[in-house]
Amino acid sequence: MLNEMKVSQIAGYILYKEDKQTMSILKLMKLLYFVDRLSLEKYGEPVSFDNMVAMPHGMVLSNTLNLSNGTIKSLGYWDKWISDKENHNISLNQDVKNIDEFDELSIADIELVDDVYSKYGQYDGFDLTDMHHNNNICPEWGDPKGSSFDVSYKDILIAMGKDENAIKVSLKRIEESKSLLQLFH
């Protein structure tokens, strides 16, 4: 179950870090995936709880991409933080004065975004696509041959080299967190 409130503020924070607070949807989607992937690696669960899919241009958070394309209706959080797509670019939809306005993000969430942005923020969407295709960076990606396919959290954890016990603990934690999310949405 997608945590739209959290992923919207993470996307907003990424855009806040960008000089013009605008970037290509391709770049944003790649960075959002890297944030979720890093969270899985460090904390054993994603921040978005979105469905992950392999697509021709790399890994994507499926429902987040659908929110950005307008193919699923926002609960209001995405629209509050992110502008409509124009010429394949999206922008921050608020005049943010300081980081405290991202009130749904924990210190750990901010650190995840900061880590990902410092490592990948200087690249454009196509460079990031190439990185998603790199088996050393995203070994979980496979060529969907023009289509897409789901990639489970378990598949990603295996690709990261996590041991069986760590995977079991992570998957249990993810299911518990998803259950809590459903109670509040």
The ordered H/E elements are HEHEEHHEHHEHH
The residue fraction in helices comes out at 40-55%
Shape from CA axes?
Answer: globular
Q: What is the averaged pLDDT score?
A: 93
The total count of helices amounts to 8
Largest sheet: 3 strands, antiparallel
Radius of gyration: 15 Å
Low-confidence stretches: none
Structural class: mainly alpha
What's the number of structural domains?
A: 1
Fraction of residues in β-strands: 5-15%
What's the β-strand tally? 5
End-to-end Cα distance, whole Å, is 9 Å
Could you give the topology of this structure?
Elements: H1 4-17, E1 22-24, H2 25-43, E2 52-55, E3 58-61, H3 62-69, H4 77-81, E4 89-91, H5 107-120, H6 125-133, E5 149-151, H7 153-159, H8 164-184
Antiparallel strand pairs: 1-4, 2-3, 2-5
Helix pairs in contact: 1-5, 2-5, 2-6
